[in-house]
Design a protein that fits this description.
Length: about 180
């Protein structure tokens, strides 16, 4: 598999998809936080809260069974995708599953970048022998739900009232894609 890919977004800008490097730590945090600021319920479970811990996370990630890629424009990360083996591979029953999380800066949405990140991750997962991709998406994120569906993910269930924002309880859609 080609580890670095270049393509033109729908608006003609050149985008590069490549494995994340420790130097991407600030841009990854900024990308995830840009989503968190507009939707305060985005969870930062796997991302460092500061550049040093994010650099450490990237450096220590087991890339034989996990994937962390960035979409970059002019050398700056504008999006990222993590595909992490279920249960850190500790359970044989779930070792065939990758959990996918995708973050893209708002200014770059609707340009085919998220779909390209998912396509890259899908190809990588097939090459590594994974059998299934899973994603959890809040029902308020209609654009992401549409993108995942378009990429072949199907709804497998809904967690009602999964997260509370102010007084509102928001549902989470569980999606999966068999490979």
């Amino acid at each position: 598999m080609q580890t670095v890919r270049k393509f033109l977004a729908k608006d003609g800008r050149e985008i590069t998809i490549r494995p994340a490097q420790p130097e991407d730590s600030c841009a990854i945090i900024d990308t995830v936080r840009s989503n968190a600021n507009e939707r305060s319920y985005v969870l930062m479970e796997h991302y460092g809260k500061d550049p040093a811990s994010e650099r450490e996370y990237i450096s220590e990630l087991d890339t034989a069974k996990n994937l962390l890629i960035v979409a970059a424009m002019d050398g700056e990360a504008i999006g990222c995708l993590a595909a992490l083996q279920a249960d850190d591979g500790r359970r044989a029953e779930t070792a065939h599953i990758l959990h996918v999380g995708l973050h893209l800066r708002e200014a770059f949405r609707g340009q085919g970048i998220g779909s390209s990140l998912l396509a890259y991750a899908t190809e990588w997962a097939v090459e590594k022998g994974y059998k299934k991709l899973e994603a959890n998406i809040f029902t308020t994120n209609k654009q992401s739900l549409g993108m995942f569906r378009k990429s072949g993910f199907a709804e497998e269930g809904v967690r009602k009232g999964r997260i509370q924002v102010g007084r509102e309880l928001i549902d989470e859609v569980l999606m999966g894609k068999m490979l």
